[in-house]
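Residues pack. Consider this:
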Amino acid sequence: MVWIVHREPEQRAALMRLAALPDATPQGSPGDAVFREAPAPDVVVLGLAGDLERELEFVHRVGTPARSSRWILVGNPEQVARARGLFDLLPATYLIDTPEPAVLREAIDAAASDSDARPLALSQRRTRDGVSARFARALADLELPILLRAIDPRLVDVPLLVLGEPGTGRSTLARYVHHFGGTAGGAFLELPCTPETQPEQLLERAAGARSSAGASRAVTLWLAGPGDLPPATQRIVSGWIRFGFPPGNTHSPTLRWIATDTGERLDRDLRRNLSGLSLRLPPLREQRERLPQLVVATARAWCQSHRLPTRRFDDRALALLEEYPWPGNLQELEAVVEQSLAGSASDPLECEDLILDGAPLGPTVRATGAVRSDAIVDTPESSAEIVLELLGEEEPALDQAHAAGAAAAESTLGAATTTSSRELRDPLSSMRSFEPWLPDGHDDPDFRDSFEALVTANATHAGALAERLEALGETPAQPQPIDVSALLQAALELRRPRIHAQRLVVLEELDPRQAEAHCDPEQIEFVFEVLLDEVLRLVPESGDVYLASRRHEAGLRGGPCIRVLIRYRGPNARAGQTASEISPAANSLGFAIASLVVWAQNATLTLDSGERGETLLLVDLPA
């Protein structure tokens, strides 16, 4: 389809004759209504005349339907020279004066062959087909009605915001929309976002798209995690999306913004400007019914890509995969399936064949060894000594406490907590006595201020724990059914302001189904509050916290339990760290007191370190 556009009827007729076009070809002046109804063209022949204002307005007005068109601009030398600057974003060929018929027809044929209708290059075809296959495998059966709008070529200039946790398929969806949403064959450019990224770096990266294949046709700018950008940079990017880039930074007729983020740290204005179209990808825990088919589809695709017979996973392996919490979502699931297939030739694969990053896929926290119950001296003094020993050791000793907890009798809790509280209060009293005088004897004002703040905070914190523990010890435990997920959710909501202030990423997987444990609700509420407060105190700013709860039928001494997992790590945690390297958790008063309360519930609390530099807390409550 070709359009002929010129202010003068005689010139339009001449261009029609020179190009040997049929009478049905859409033609008219820049303001004619015929172009509002005509099918989108492959090529537009635009005659230049006058001050070019009407021609500029025409290009601007028909930009959307003619977005993927190629343009031929015809005029005298002076008009062509001016047009090159004014129509700088237009993929155009310029012809001087009234061209020869052969020259005009050759230009039209060349422009038509350069349109989006031409076949993709082999490299682009492979990339597109790979994205399409992964999308079909991981996301195609999700209900995403907004996706149909996102791939509508008429909405290609509407920004798209894809929300979801890391690993849910956000990058796959962004690439899919690029390849099938009106920017096919154009350049796809990732703009990585970090807390150190400055606007100048983003502009430099965007300007580099000019040399990318397909940039003259369209450019998709993918903001990968814009919530991580500094607030000032987020505001500047928001302005670019709303009002356009500064002149000279992009040279493409079609520019599309796609952003993928969790949504937790996005500036309000940036989120609003990105949300012309918005959709959410659910985490894997919300679609566990899809897990078996995802495993099968991923295994089939991996085997086919390596020209191997398709293999499967046995029922026990599938059951283990269904039990796993999948904090890394689809990306982690695919890694397990592919690494397990590569590491074993078994068919079917069994539990022992499942690996992730070179390690067996097993429980998130290592199990601790059992200790004979008759080895525990069941007296108030011994319980208090265990707590104080935990506070003083340099290496984590909660594994020992966990093993001893099975024999702790409920009747000892009142006396043990009273003893522990008294022994805690004695040093606190001395600390408070010295607190007002010690800073006065030091010459460094910064030290004085820091010392006073530190001592006051620690004294207040320890005193509050002691008071709460003593109060709990005065009331006998009254086990009853409690909703563990609801208790955790309530404790977490009370701490939302602190979470936002510390710029933490908090992921939740609290299963409300069969979530009842049989414990004293006040004491378990105390445990959750203490654990969360200690975690928020120990995790560095911009770190992440993961909470999960789930019922296990044989998770606590062979009986059913509700298992609660709390994992936290700083932004620079690395594989191979131990718990004592990550945080002072082994010497945490809060963790030690929480473990003592947990013992009295016939439950267990374990502190451990993971393989990726995180600290792990595991609480098993009898169900």
